[in-house]
Amino acid sequence: MDKVIKMDNIYKNYKLGQVNVEALKGINLEVEKGEFISIMGPSGSGKSTLLNLIGCLDKPTKGLYELDGNRVEKLNDYQLSEIRNNFLGFVFQSFNLLSSLNAIKNVEIPLIYRGIRKKVRKELCKEALEVVGLGDRMHHLPNQLSGGQQQRVAIARAIVGKPAVILADEPTGALDSKTGNDIMDIFQKLNKENNMTIVQVTHEEDIAKIGNRIIRLIDGYIQ
Ligand SMILES: Nc1ncnc2c1ncn2[C@@H]1O[C@H](COP(=O)(O)OP(=O)(O)O)[C@@H](O)[C@H]1O
Ligand SMILES: [Mg+2]
Questions:
Q1: For ligand 1, what atom is nearest to the CA of residue 52?
Q2: Ligand 2 centroid to 218 CA: how many Å?
Q3: Which long-range contacts (CB under 8 A, 24 or more apart) does 189-196 make?
Q4: What average pLDDT does the segment 12-39 reach?
Q5: What is the CATH number of domain 33-48+77-222?
Q6: Average of per-residue pLDDT across 193-214
């Protein structure tokens, strides 16, 4: 089987002055290509810490992490940003759109970083916005869109570069349940039709059940 994520005895400590917080205490995790995983657990159990490590936004204090066959601790900052840009797509609870840019310009950002030509960029952005059902909202600013529509723009931005893996931290946390279910429909479609691997954090059982596996964190351990 094709392993995308392989974590072996991962620890993450945060040092704040004299205080040492052990956020993750020996995580073992393997994710196959095409899986749709939900990470659950109480507040402070280490969910965001784990997702940030998976996304190479931070490095483990100890342990082995292989992403798509790359030993992450051996990669330099440039290689890490390359892998984030080309292999991963990120979705956050608070959408994180740039308020001064319309939908299509927000979606375009990762492609500009990749040095893709303008004409191709426009085509890919349109395609991504159509996938999330916003083909008719391309020139709207974030504050002219509903929360669910803003999250769909953020998903379009995450998938425009056709990443293998989507990482989402509480993607429905700021949305009502109907809108949250619409977002899960999009994730399911991306998972089933495009074989994208999805790892999401959620504290809602109904949302977690959409995936094919639930991982429960308690106090830095996998239950
Ligand atoms: N940047 C940080 N510096 C210090 N402590 C942190 C930092 N981020 C998280 N923590 C601590 O690590 C633990 C896990 O946090 P987090 O991963 O955000 O949990 P969750 O997402 O499950 O709510 C918490 O005790 C939190 O206070
Ligand atoms: Mg969190």
A1: 17
A2: 13
A3: 189/131, 190/131, 190/159, 190/166, 191/34, 191/36, 194/159, 194/162, 195/33, 195/34, 196/34, 196/159, 196/163, 196/164, 196/165, 196/166
A4: 96
A5: 3.40.50.300
A6: 96
Q: What is the token pair recorded at 32?
A: 């196959």
For residue 120, the surrounding DSSP H or E stretch is: helix 118-131
Measured from the CB, is residue 172 less than 6 Å from ligand 1?
Answer: no
Question: DSSP secondary-structure letter at 95?
Answer: -
Which pLDDT score, from 0 to 100, does residue 1 have?
64
Task: Find the radius of gyration of the CA atoms of the chain.
Answer: 17
175, 12 in Cβ contact below 8 A?
no
Cα distances (Å, whole numbers) of residue 187 to 44, 205, 217: 25, 16, 22
Nearest CA to ligand 1 atom 11: 23
Q: Is 93 in the pocket of ligand 1 (CB under 6 A)?
A: no
For residues 207 and 38, the answer to whether their CB atoms sit within 8 Å is: yes
Q: Is 48 in the pocket of ligand 1 (CB under 6 A)?
A: yes
Q: Is 23 helix (H, G, I), strand (E, B) or coil?
A: strand
Ligand nearest 43 Cα, by number? 1
Read off the pLDDT of residues 126-145 as tens digits, 9 standing for 90 and up.
999 999 999 999 999 999 99
